[in-house]
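Re: [ENG-882] Designed sequences occasionally contain unexpected residues at chain ends

Forwarding the minimal case from QA. Structure tokens:
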């Protein structure tokens, strides 16, 4: 399943002239990070060859596939051939289109079938496939109507771009699935989808798990600001990655059992309350991956101490009593504080405490600390790629000598992270937005220095 964005989701800004089609393409590639785009017929300021070539080239340069061109419905006039030609000029393999409005006229279906036949012939001449979309209030509302028109037209150049909900219809989908070249899902509510639309997203992923074409996620008309749509898409992309790589999905053998590095980096999030034990062999595997981190002079400064069960609770009580002592708490206040810390450390079934040695040479000590921090990130990414849940936590007690003694560490060792680890997340947060513009500075040497260099 690949994800595409339709310009229909940006109608308000495109119609108002606040966004051009070229800017929209850039947004799809660089902000939404979708795989493909669908051009909506309503948004073309012009359709001459030069302009269409520019759109096609821009999409290619941005690594976007032009999945389709969509026009609302077949007109039965030369317009249909015109849009097919536009699709061909854009390099779109599909022209997505709908059926005419529902009508009581007994001849309406026959006229629609004739228009569809003509359009299918015109499509064949241009090597573009017509993909019919079903919609309420038209002559094609469901799977049965799609099957009916396909039978009447009987052309390999008429296929389907159904609303994904068609796949939940209980009737047989024979004749539908194999002719579906693109699926469309209109989010019920963009804000809701971003915040707790996991059920809706999971159903969609489940329905289309084996579908190799594009799924177009659309936001409902006049709905929600752009950032909500971005968040909803990001949420869906994260869930899709998780579902694709989840054990039992059948994809592990193909993919070596883990998601790719970029997906792991982009979709990793802290999971505050990971649930379920992780088997010791898996923890050892994560540690091995953690130690692939860069390490100057290969000092291997890291140590991993796994604490679970009764030992974890002992650590929690010690943590709490040391904290209470440091705060001068007594009586009930002390007991409550200890209970709070006991509960805090019990938020995960296993804690992996990552510590680093402290070299006498302060430069080496600093490099060792940095290497261990990199190892912690490796651990988190590897855990996420294995569909486990983890969180990096610290707190003032990590510096306490009594905690280090309990863990069997040297008093000079430094604890870099207590990783809360579990086998699954109750809820996984969407990727968080980044503010990358303000953190990057491409240093350009002053002109005088550049000139001096030339003469060196
Ligand atoms: C060095 C370090 C120490 C952290 N310590 C804590 C902590 O004590 N408590 C906590 O809730 N989160 C802690 N975090 C997790 C961050 O709060 C978390 O990474 C951040 O909110 C970003 O969320 P994300 O990991 O989901 O992207 C720590 C992260 C780092 C890198």
């Amino acid at each position: 399943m690949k994800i595409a964005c339709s310009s229909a989701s940006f109608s308000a800004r495109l119609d108002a002239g606040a966004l051009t089609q070229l800017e929209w393409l850039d947004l799809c590639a660089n902000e939404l990070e979708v795989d493909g785009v669908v051009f909506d017929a309503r948004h073309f300021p012009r359709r001459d060859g030069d302009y269409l070539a520019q759109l096609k080239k821009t999409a290619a340069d941005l690594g976007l596939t032009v999945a389709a061109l969509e026009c609302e419905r077949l007109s039965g006039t030369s317009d249909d051939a015109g849009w097919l030609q536009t699709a061909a000029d854009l390099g779109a393999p599909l022209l997505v289109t709908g059926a005419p409005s529902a009508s009581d006229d007994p001849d309406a279906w026959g006229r629609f079938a004739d228009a569809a036949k003509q359009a299918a012939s015109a499509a064949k001449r241009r090597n573009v496939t017509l993909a019919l979309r079903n919609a309420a209030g038209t002559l094609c509302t469901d799977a049965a109507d799609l099957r009916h028109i396909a039978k009447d037209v009987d052309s390999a150049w008429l296929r389907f771009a159904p609303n994904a909900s068609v796949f939940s219809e209980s009737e047989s989908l024979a004749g539908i699935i194999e002719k579906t070249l693109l699926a469309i899902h209109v989010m019920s509510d963009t804000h809701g989808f971003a915040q707790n639309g996991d059920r809706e997203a999971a159903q969609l992923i489940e329905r289309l798990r084996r579908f190799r074409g594009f799924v177009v996620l659309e936001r409902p008309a006049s709905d929600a600001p752009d950032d909500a749509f971005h968040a909803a898409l990001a949420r869906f992309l994260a869930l899709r990655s998780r579902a694709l790589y989840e054990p039992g999905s059948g994809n592990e053998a193909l993919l070596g059992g883990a998601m790719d590095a970029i997906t792991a980096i982009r979709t990793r999030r802290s999971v505050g309350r990971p649930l379920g034990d992780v088997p010791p062999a898996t923890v050892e595997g994560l540690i091995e991956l953690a130690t692939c981190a860069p390490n100057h002079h290969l000092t291997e400064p890291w140590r991993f101490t796994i604490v679970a069960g009764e030992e974890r609770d002992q650590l929690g009580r010690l943590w709490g009593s040391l904290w209470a002592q440091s705060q001068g708490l007594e009586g009930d206040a002390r007991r409550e504080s200890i209970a709070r810390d006991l509960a805090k450390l019990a938020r995960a079934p296993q804690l992996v405490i990552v510590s680093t040695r402290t070299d006498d040479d302060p430069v080496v000590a600093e490099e060792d600390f940095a290497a261990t921090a990199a190892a912690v990130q490796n651990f988190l990414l590897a855990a996420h790629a294995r569909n486990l849940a983890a969180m990096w936590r610290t707190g003032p007690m990590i510096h306490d000598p009594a905690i280090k003694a309990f863990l069997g560490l040297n008093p000079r060792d430094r604890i870099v992270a207590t990783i809360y680890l579990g086998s699954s997340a109750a809820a996984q947060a969407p990727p968080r937005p980044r503010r990358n513009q303000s953190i990057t500075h491409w240093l350009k040497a002053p002109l005088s220095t550049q000139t001096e260099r030339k003469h060196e």
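QA comment: On inspection the terminal residues look reasonable. Residues 362-385 form the longest helix (24 residues). Proposing we downgrade this to a documentation issue.
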